Amino acid sequence: MSKILIIEDEAAIRRVLNKIISEENESYHVEEAADGLAGLEMIKNNDYDLVLCDIKMPKMDGVEVLEKTKKMKPEVPIVMISGHGDIDTAIQTMRLGAFDYISKPPDLNRLLNTVRNALDKKVLLVENKRLKKKVGESYQMIGQSKAIVQIKNIIDKVAATDARVLITGGNGTGKELVAHWLHEKSDRVKAPMIEVNCAAIPSELIESELFGHVKGSFTGANKDRAGKFESANGGTIFLDEIGDMSLSAQAKVLRALQESRISRVGSDKDIKVNVRVIAATNKNLKEEIAEGRFREDLYHRLAVILIKVPALNDRREDIPLLVDFFTKKIAEEQGTPKKEFSTESIQLLQEYDWTGNIRELRNIVERLIILGEKTVSKNDVALFTSK
User: Fold this and answer.
1) Would you give the distance in Å from CA 147 to the centre of its chain?
2) Most exposed residue of 151, 161, 221, 241, measured as fewest CB within 10 angstroms of its CB?
């Protein structure tokens, strides 16, 4: 059901518009307001999918209604209607965010097409907002410990820049969450974030994966193929476990960072790329440099901003919040009621030695939700955390 509000001071025109729109589609629910002030009050107290608003009205004109609505509920499309065919007013309302401007008496087809298009746009906006929220929820950083608060503060300061970031920390600590937050809060959020797990790609294929290749450059290269750097153009590339990258690939990454150019394997043609690089590793890169396994010049290019993600054992005060978050999320995913954890069970989880960090905690919480009682007890935790 699409909810539509008509704000118009002439009762006869309100009735005609209501009749036309209501008869067009049974799913259109139309309400009316006799002046701008009453209309604005209805917008405040209801969720409308579309507003049709006259311009010349008593108490509050349509332009003011438009301005106030866009500040209050910017996602609501507003179609302005006026009997005064004033081009300047039409331009003004469009600049203020009106979806469209229609002159009286409105052409029937034009009116109905505008209504349909405006409602379609509202659906898309709501869906995009929902998907964005879903993405945001997938990469939430849960915790109020000093270390996590500090990381969040660094992200807030750094995200809007193009500064390269090197994220360090053990397996399962949440390095990828930091990378996603940096991208989500950046000006590049509308462009792709491409993830590359450098440890999962064979050394002989890493260069092709990152920079692409041309047809015939090696056995199996049956056609030209773009690499991850090209795919991330305008956005962010996340090089996870970069400490496992081969030295030859490191040299090419260094060139890409220095010159903002890459070349596909088997080609001497340069391709210009605009990519923000975020890297992560569970290794001590300074030790890797000393052993000759990692380039020092690449390290200094990557480590403009350093973020160290703490082990779960170093932020035990966050465990109650993490357990609550995982409990809700897993219950939603599986369509089961949310289980409660007793105070004693939480205390035992805080005393546990988390070698697998956040990833291990989530696995154990999921196990307890599936196999534990309605209220998870200390004994349940003891059973599932015994090594």
Assistant:
1) 23
2) 161
Mind spelling out the 3-state secondary structure of 270-326?
CEECCCEEEEEECCCHHHHHHCCCCCHHHHHHHCCEEEECCCHHHCHHHHHHHHHHH
Contact residues for 276 (Cβ-Cβ < 8 A; gap 6+): 162, 164, 183, 186, 188, 235, 236, 237
Domains of the chain: 2-134 (3.40.50.2300), 139-310 (3.40.50.300), 313-385 (1.10.8.60)
3-state DSSP assignment of residue 2: strand
Distance from C-alpha of 206 to C-alpha of 192, rounded to nearest angstrom: 20
The DSSP secondary-structure symbol of 170 reads: -
User: What number is the average pLDDT over the span 299-328?
Assistant: 96
CB 92 within 8 A of CB 63: yes
Mutual orientation of helices 357-371 and 319-334 as an angle, nearest 10°?
A: 50
The tens digit of pLDDT for each residue in 285-310 reads: 999 999 999 999 999 999 999 999 99
Residue 58, preceding bond cis, omega within 30 degrees? no
In one letter, which amino acid is 274? N
- The per-residue pLDDT for range 198-220, each reduced to its tens digit, is 999 988 889 999 999 999 888 88
Q: Which helix (H) or strand (E) holds 53?
A: strand 50-54
pLDDT classification of 136: cutoffs 50, 70, 90: low
Nearest to 7 by CA among 53, 61, 59: 53
